[in-house]
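subagent[fold] <- orchestrator: predict structure for attached chain, return tokens only, no commentary.
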Amino acid sequence: MKKLRIGIIGVGGIAQSRHIPAFLQLRDVCEITALSDVNIERARETAEKYNIPHVFEEYKELFSEVDAVCICTPNKFHADITVAAFEDGIHVLCEKPMALSAEECEAMIAASKKADKVLAIAYHYRFMKEAQAAKKAMEEVGTPLVVRVQGLRRRKVPGWGVFTNKDLQGGGSLIDYGCHLLDLALWLIGNPKHIAVSGTMYNTLSKMPNQVNQWGTFNHETFNVDDHVTAYVKFENGASMLFETSWAANIKVDQEHLSISGVDGGLSVFPFEFYTTKNGMLLNSQAAWLPGEENQGLPQAKNFIHACLGVEELIVKPEEALQVSQIIDCIYESGGTSI
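subagent[fold] -> orchestrator:
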């Protein structure tokens, strides 16, 4: 089997903590041949650390050395880099969210189809063992009725990088963190068409002085993205979703919750449990996990590579990632653009 030559565009935290280590573990099917970053010194240090041969400041110069790229830049640049890669005949794994808007996502999909190349989006929650178990159990849940999603952090506004830069990221807690759980919930219920979306955004806590924040410092005076979002989504098949996400909220502890109630049963993803009735009883089931891979980055990278090599279907399809961005657009539009 031919080895896929991988290029990494943007060598910040997510590239070095997730994508580079994952690709390095798959040396039988791929090799990282090039890096690109606007911070050329950081790129050179990273290349030396991982023994990667080619380093570029301009990402287009990297294309001649690769068959596929992993895009780890701020959200603003996802669409432009993706389209440029497809124009050069290169496969793309793009970090989440897919882009700043659904319109940009559509342009990415069109370019992918024109080039006949793979476009994958790094919604890695789908690769968690709990998520995979929940997907298999959805047949026993039956027709989904109500979905409840909470991705809540008490005081964890990212104080590094550009996470609080609205121009570069497009938003805050929703587009950065909540998108993961929104994508997972949609995937589990089969991505039914959404027909109504209502949302409310807040950033009151992060605009207050004397911040208590567990993830670094940020300027409360210039903070202009969302730190807490609520939404209600209705679907064409009659299902509904109650959604909430935050970077900053006055709650007891961080919470990550996704549950689905269906006609035949129900489940909770974190931790994985299944609920039903049988033989006149209420039954609750829990998983007993076998030892296995706990890093979602590895199966995500493997799925992308195998899709590029034509031996496996993508688990995260771009049209599904587009729906996530469509709903995010609707929530932001519904909640207003004043913050």
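orchestrator: received. Logging for downstream: The longest strand covers residues 144-152. The mean pLDDT is 96.
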